[in-house]
Design brief:
9 helices; 353 residues; single chain; globular; 2 domains; Rossmann fold; six-stranded parallel β-sheet; binds zinc ion; Quinone Oxidoreductase, Chain A, domain 1; seven-stranded mixed β-sheet
């Protein structure tokens, strides 16, 4: 079968590799669509970062690895003991496995397992291939009406949704979202789906502000032409946002969020920061703002899938499709330059599967 294989920085090859078959408790999937994100870009341009150069503590995997961790497909075969998933069903994959015995796993917070392994990054197989095999608990069946394109977006939308839940808002409260890339958009849509209507988005790119405005955001602020903290304070009656979600991950976004969050409000970082933030803890002294983070997802897929089936995640205006053959020459560069916001790779032959 074909697969996009990562060998190291700048080196992703479409190769012919052995087709996997499902062992006990496993499910084989004909991949249909796979989203590309900042993690893939990081590996391609600056990696290896998360792809293992030493045997992964859970999977034992080392480079090279098949890429693709945001994907969906059709079940083609199930291993012994799998009785509740049937060939032909459209499924999305929650691409994580965990140890099951550590403190975090025992508390149910598998996203915080120190040995967490992402399929398509640290395991044998991924979504950027004709087929892949995963454990049954990674598979989520998709209801009628959810398309393969949406199926490929569940993973990043779940990342954002986990951040939304970490923000702890209830309807009537106000949020600020920093960054209107795919995760910021996912946070905006997730907040709205949970009844938080008042969402201010801060984003320097005009194209990204336009995208989130098309999705219904009525307060998209350009931090390069106005003082975003002052604007948010104005828009919230002088109080600041009840919670701020930082999906931009820069010193500017973090420090502005700190200035524009209400006292005793919460600041949630969802982004991976590229550089350290000069931060003075005294800034919290007079506000008792809580700073916390959001890591991937934990039992978020079912809720996102349910909201998706209800139409909470429109894809117009921010999701584009490419073929697997355009991944390296077109896909990575256009995401890196910002000329594309979110790319979904249509896996060749997937339509007929
Ligand atoms: Zn991703
Ligand atoms: Zn664990």
């Amino acid at each position: 079968m074909f697969a996009a294989v990562y060998h190291g920085r700048g080196d992703v090859r479409i190769e012919d590799v052995p087709e996997p078959s499902p062992g006990p408790g496993e499910v084989k999937i004909r991949n249909l669509a796979n989203g590309i994100c900042g993690t893939d870009l990081k590996e391609f341009y600056t990696g290896p970062v998360f792809t293992p150069v030493e045997p992964h503590p859970l999977t034992g995997k080392v480079l090279p690895v098949i890429l693709g961790h945001e994907f969906c497909g059709t079940v083609t075969e199930v291993g012994d003991g799998v009785t509740d998933v049937t060939p032909g069903e459209l499924v999305a994959v929650e691409p994580v496995s965990w140890c099951g015995t550590c403190d975090a796993c025992r508390r149910g917070s598998y996203n915080l397992c120190p040995k967490i392994a992402f399929h398509g990054v640290m395991t044998d197989g991924g979504g950027l291939a004709e087929y892949t095999v995963v454990g049954r608990r990674m598979v989520h069946r998709l209801p009628a009406g959810v398309t393969p394109e949406q199926g490929a977006l569940i993973e990043p939308m779940a990342v954002a949704y986990h951040g939304v839940k970490r923000a702890g808002l209830v309807p009537g409260q106000r949020a600020a979202v920093y960054g209107a890339g795919p995760i910021g958009i996912g946070a905006f849509l997730g907040l709205r789906a949970r009844g938080i209507e008042d969402v201010i988005v801060v984003e320097p790119s005009a194209a990204r502000r336009a995208a989130v405005e098309r999705l219904g955001c009525t307060a998209a602020i350009d931090p390069t032409t106005e003082d975003a903290a002052a604007a948010i304070t104005d828009l919230t009656g002088g109080l600041g946002a009840d919670a701020s979600l930082d999906a931009a991950g820069s010193p500017d976004s973090f420090l502005t969020a700190l200035r524009s969050t209400r006292s005793q409000g919460r600041l949630v970082t969802i982004a991976v920061f590229e550089e350290p933030v000069p931060f003075q803890p005294n800034d919290l002294l007079f506000t008792e703002i809580e700073i916390t983070s959001s890591m991937a997802y934990c039992d978020d897929f079912p809720e996102v899938i349910d909201l998706m089936a209800k139409g909470a995640y429109p894809t117009d205006g921010w999701v584009e499709h490419i073929g697997l053959d355009g991944l390296v020459d077109h896909g990575f560069p256009s995401l890196r330059s910002g000329s594309a916001m979110k790319l979904v790779v249509d896996i060749p032959g997937g339509e007929a599967a």
